[in-house]
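Technical note accompanying the year-one report. For the benefit of new consortium partners, we illustrate the data format agreed upon in the data management plan: each record pairs a sequence with a structure-token string. No post-processing was applied to the example shown here.
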Amino acid sequence: MVKAFRDTWRDGIHSYLSYLRDRLTVARDLLTDSGSIFVQIGDENVHRVRALMDEIFGDDNFVSEIIVIKSSGLGANTLPRQNDYILMYAKLATALKYRQLFKPKALDGEGAGAYQLAKSTDGVIRRLRKGELEAPGTIPTNLTVLRLGDLTKPGPGSKYEIEFQGKLYSSKSRWWGMPKDTLLRAIKADRVFGSATTLSYQRLLSDWSAFPLTNIWADTGTGSGLNKIYVVQTDEKIVQRCLLMATDPGDLVLDPTCGSGTTATVAEQWGRRWITIDTSRVALALARARIMGARYPYYLLADSRDGQLKESEITRTAPSSQPTRGHIAHGFVYERVPHITLKSIANNAEIDVIWERFQETLEPLRERLNDAVAANWEEWEIPRQSGEEWPEEAKQLHARWWEKRIARQQEIDASIAAKADHEFLYDKPYEDKKKVRVAGPFTVESLSPHRVLGVDENDELIDPAGAEGDGGYSEERDFVQIILENLKTAGVQQAHREDKITFTALTPWPGDLICAEGRYFEGGEETGKEKRAAIFIGPEFGTVSRPDLVAAAREAGDADFDVLITCAFNYDAHSSEFDKLGRVPVLKARMNADLHMAADLKNTGKGNLFVIFGEPDIDIVDAAGPNGTGDGEPGQIQVKVNGVDVFHPNTGEVRSDGADGIACWFIDTDYNEESFFVRHAYFLGANDPYKSLKTTLKAEIDEDAWATLHSDTSRPFAKPKAGRIAVKVINHLGDEVMKVFRV
């Protein structure tokens, strides 16, 4: 499933349609044959977008045009607009996966306008009062809400007479809509009502207490029900319905317009895999925090023993003996509503069995009651309340008869509900209240912006970024100059706010890799010594490697600089091992990603645009030896993080900052030199890092288990097969550094 793009008309309708055409084409290619796409659009251009989607997907793959009501009407010259549209298309309509959703019928709402009667346990039917219809909660619990339906039809059918409560009824000029044995079974089930001249079918509200969701969603107005954390945040109800209609647990959902992460949050809640994309770091940060801080219900899996037992309880059948593997693709155990019809009652032979079994008790009780009160009551004539003048024996017989009579009806009703057709409520899986769930593991990845090269009429490459005056890309968008301007204003921040390199001068330098000379005072401007720093700036879109640093350090040493300061968005893993060449220290400053927008960034110097975060100070010890915890086995090792080596500009020294400067650290216990895989994670926050998580989970935490995570010493692990481990450390500013160690 692919979720909606929101309509943003930045450069006019034609530009937007071109933008949308490209993305819809990609979405179509990504979809499986059973997949579907939802596009949310305003009404002013819905016909244009509908035509575009017909062109891309084919008009035969159009599924529905859904009207969603918003909180309030938008301004207009004529009638205000209060709705959006969601266009639903299938990749292949004949293979479309679709799950019907339902809404509950409500006497004071939708779907139940004809249900205006109620029946008591003694079979008396009366009309509901106005106050009861307007406030269904006031209806007594011993009343069953119903409406009457015709048992006859105008066309050919059956002609016969049937006795009901001592009277004979015929279909008169019409025809019975069912055979006689079917009607007799309906009478046994207490589903027939007799008036003076005709019989009617008692259709209970609980027989079909839901009605299908249509393409008009009038209950999606956000109003005060949506606490927005993002300007274009969509109501979760809208996304949830789209997702539940078109996917099953384990299916993949793509949302190319992440925003605040509503689609990802809903997908995570309902057990769907998800991918969401955005160009804004703010949006991704909001989405990540929202998902990681959320607490989700734990739904019973159909492929689990608990799920099998619940399914057995619902269907009144023996539990399945199939082995279970906890596979989410098998779905959840859902609540369901019976879809009871007269036909399903007629085909339920269990009603006769229940009737005969209870008659063996009820008939003797009725005869003894008649003898006790000198009456000749048939079953339907026995009063609900006993007479005050009755002897005690008669009162006891009466109470026992009604107890059995009500029990018979309850068992028949349960049989009818169990044997009837059911509709699954895909938005109501059964929840295990004893368990709580948080988000499964997910990653946040990024691709640096890239340039697209075209070919002109002479087969020459065209680089739009290198064209003069094209979008400010001339001379590589003056990237180096922009960085230097921000560097001059912002300076280079260390791990502590008081440790900062503030340049007194920053001038261009005509080197191959060194692009500027910076001057600053070590130890204070009044009493300190002035230092010359060589400035090396990495690529705008790319990673700085160790060979780059070595070459830049050689150039700095040849030019007699005191220190080399490198500025880059990313460094490769091996560059972390390089911190000095000869007498020249190498300070690696990581540039804030906001500098990608440097041309539009207001340069105030208040942000941490350039941050130096040194190497982690690590000890690798024998887990079973004297320096280890003693918890390990022979051959296992442990990692102890002592802190981070930080360059202090006031003294020019490099010293360990201690573990207090570390927010969290991770270990890849078998590093393959290609990707860092988190196998151990530890948190060293000054405050209790699990306090908020405990609050979210609302559960008791195993303190010993948490203690192993809130530690500067890792758990024991086996020596790596690859011969290397990697340690990644993140400070409280969110900066990270990774170092590889040979073991």
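Partners are asked to follow this layout when depositing records. The first strand starts at residue 36 and ends at 42.
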